[in-house]
Amino acid sequence: MARRTLEVGGETWQVVPSGRVTAYQRDEFGLVFQRGSGADAERRFVRYTPLGARRWDASLAELTDRHLLQLFACSQIAWTSPDARLSPARAERDRR
């Protein structure tokens, strides 16, 4: 799986495709920004329209760090994102 890392405010975030597929399949991709691991991981979600490659792995590789920072700034915390598909108990815990 394609994976990138991003430094935001002194914290390291892993950036991976969310796996979300739209009706047109290649017009929009989702990304997950994750800090930490396991049950305590903080996750943020964002969708973007690729400007170059129309494959998710190639599109992620084409994104510059500056563009990833812009996407991070627009990302939603997990409990507010429909892409998260969290259980109600997990969503409640993430709200705190």
Q: Could you give the count of β-strands?
A: 5
Shape: globular
As a percent range, the share of strand residues is: 25-35%
Q: Biggest sheet, strands in spatial order?
A: 1-2-3-4-5
Give the CA-CA distance, first to last residue. Answer: 31 Å
Number of domains: 1
Q: What's the Cα radius of gyration?
A: 13 Å
- Written as H for each helix and E for each strand, in order along the chain, the element string is EEEEHHEH
Largest sheet: 5 strands, antiparallel
Please give the share of residues in helix: 25-40%
Number of helices: 3
Low-confidence stretches: 86-96
Mean pLDDT: 80
Question: Which secondary-structure class do the elements indicate?
Answer: alpha+beta
